[in-house]
């Protein structure tokens, strides 16, 4: 039982890194033509197999979205995932009006999975929901779900 708990925490840590690092770039970077560059603050909540996960003690830091980042947001996301060693590939990108839908395929030595992220994005806020269905090498099948909300809070310094 203890080994399974450690494996589950490994999945959670890996997925929080994916979400916090990759999707921090993702959530802040997905705002195509209507987003405002500046400082963005986000809040996230996670569930694993339908059970709420504890919130971390350290809040996610605010992120600066520069003018350069805003010019090619898909490329910004891809480069941030590569920088943060997130092994995911964008398999579908659909952004029309204020509605965003993105599909990701993720794989590393611990397992693999597919994620869908959808939601509304405006120049000053976003409200995204995501779900990753995966298979961990030791723990087996899992579903990680999250909500992610953010808002622009000022100019980059």
Quick synopsis:
The protein has helices at 2-29, 67-71, 73-83; strands spanning 38-48, 51-52, 63-65, 88-96, 99-108, 111-121, 125-136, 140-154. With 157 residues, it is of the alpha+beta class.
Domain module tally = 1
Shape: globular
Query: What structural class do you assign from the helix and strand content?
Result: alpha+beta
Largest sheet geometry? 8 strands, antiparallel
How many distinct helices?
3
Helix content: 25-40%
Mean pLDDT: 78
The counted number of beta strands is 8
Strand percentage lies at over 45%
Distance between the termini: 48 Å
Which residues form runs of ≥5 with pLDDT under 50? 1-10, 13-33
Order of helices and strands: HEEEHHEEEEE
**Radius of gyration from the CA trace?**
15 Å
Strand and helix layout:
Layout: H1 2-29, E1 38-48, E2 51-52, E3 63-65, H2 67-71, H3 73-83, E4 88-96, E5 99-108, E6 111-121, E7 125-136, E8 140-154
Antiparallel strand pairs: 1-2, 1-3, 1-8, 4-5, 5-6, 6-7, 7-8
Describe this structure in words.
- By secondary structure, the chain is of the alpha+beta class.
- The chain has one domain.
- 28% of the residues lie in helices and 46% in strands.
- Mean pLDDT is 78; it is low at 1-10 and 13-33.
Q: What are the defining features of this structure?
A:
alpha+beta, disordered N terminus, eight-stranded antiparallel beta sheet, 157 residues
């Amino acid at each position: 039982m203890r080994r399974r708990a450690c494996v589950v925490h490994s999945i959670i840590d890996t997925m929080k890194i994916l979400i916090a690092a990759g999707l921090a770039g993702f959530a802040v970077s997905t705002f195509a033509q209507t987003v405002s560059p500046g400082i963005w603050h986000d809040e996230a909540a996670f569930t694993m197999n339908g059970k709420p996960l504890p919130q971390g003690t350290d809040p996610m830091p605010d992120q600066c979205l520069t003018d350069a980042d805003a010019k090619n947001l898909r490329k910004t996301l891809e480069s941030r995932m590569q920088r943060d060693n997130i092994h995911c590939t964008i398999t579908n990108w659909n952004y029309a009006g204020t509605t965003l839908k993105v599909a990701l395929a993720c794989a590393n030595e611990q397992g693999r999975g597919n994620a869908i992220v959808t939601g509304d994005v405006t120049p000053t806020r976003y409200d995204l929901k995501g779900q990753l269905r995966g298979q961990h090498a030791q723990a087996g099948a899992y579903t990680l779900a999250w909500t992610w909300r953010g808002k622009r809070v000022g100019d980059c310094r």
